[in-house]
């Protein structure tokens, strides 16, 4: 037996996990590609390529195991919190301020959900500043994973809307679950996402996010003005897929607004109207922006005002 192995064995028997205990490697080293410690680095790389976690910000946290409802179905009453040797109470968190596309499993923190104890704390690293926000999703919504992006689409909608983002009649709305029933939304329902104001430090967002979660029982996301978005789901797959749907909807809403279309308006004609060039009345309706929009869409308004003038001349 090598010296290293001997030392490890002794440590294992006698030492409780400490901040730099190599025995806690067991919590993050797994050949299972679906282990949270392998998924977080993989997903962070993907999110980096999408521009969601660049400049070290943003990331994803994953909780061990499967959705509770699925566990109940399988009736593993006593061992239900242990799946493939993994404890459902464990939450995996990336380090703070590191290049998120270059994380390795050994860099990860592991905390207990129930007591928020550090089971693993890699030396010289700090847990993500988003940790208490991820815990909001775990404790208030029984989430299995929570994503935080700094996507420009998310930031843009917070510049274009007040305290709520709203959109309807979009196919991708069907990819979003209702918080209360966990059912998927319908194409023609109104998706509403609360927007909270940013704070100087990420941790200080915790109570604002918690209030938004309480006030909006249907939401699975909270936007943070001039910052990004938090999205959670019962599993990492659902959190990822919903983040993709939300981001798509944010992007299309920004594009719609930029040409004067209201993403929250029920379409009156089918197919969706292109920018009208010969119907003065319809043009004027689109150009009639509400107070909030005027503040943030002066350029768009100007464009339409000019188009309307041009059309009046043409008539
Ligand atoms: C340029 S990142 C600013 C801080 C931030 O918004 C953030 O999400 C930080 O996350 P981290 O996991 O690096 O603490
Ligand atoms: Zn952030």
TrEMBL record:
Cofactor: Zn(2+)
Name of one Pfam family that matches: Aldolase_II
Pathway where it operates: Amino-acid biosynthesis; L-methionine biosynthesis via salvage pathway; L-methionine from S-methyl-5-thio-alpha-D-ribose 1-phosphate: step 2/6
Residues at the active site: 171 (proton donor/acceptor)
Composition skew (Basic residues), residue ranges: 1-14
Catalytic activity: 5-(methylsulfanyl)-D-ribulose 1-phosphate = 5-methylsulfanyl-2,3-dioxopentyl phosphate + H2O
Gene Ontology CC: cytoplasm
InterPro entries: Aldolase_II/adducin_N, Aldolase_II/adducin_N_sf, MethylthioRu-1-P_deHdtase_MtnB, Salvage_MtnB_euk
Top EC class of this enzyme: lyase
Keyword terms, alphabetized: Amino-acid biosynthesis, Cytoplasm, Lyase, Metal-binding, Methionine biosynthesis, Zinc
Entry EC no(s): 4.2.1.109
Amino acids binding substrate: 130
GO molecular function, one term: zinc ion binding
Cofactor note: Binds 1 zinc ion per subunit.
Stated role: Catalyzes the dehydration of methylthioribulose-1-phosphate (MTRu-1-P) into 2,3-diketo-5-methylthiopentyl-1-phosphate (DK-MTP-1-P).
Full protein name: Methylthioribulose-1-phosphate dehydratase
Species of provenance: Paraglomus occultum
Highest classification ranks of the organism: Eukaryota, Fungi, Fungi incertae sedis, Mucoromycota, Glomeromycotina
GN (gene name): MDE1
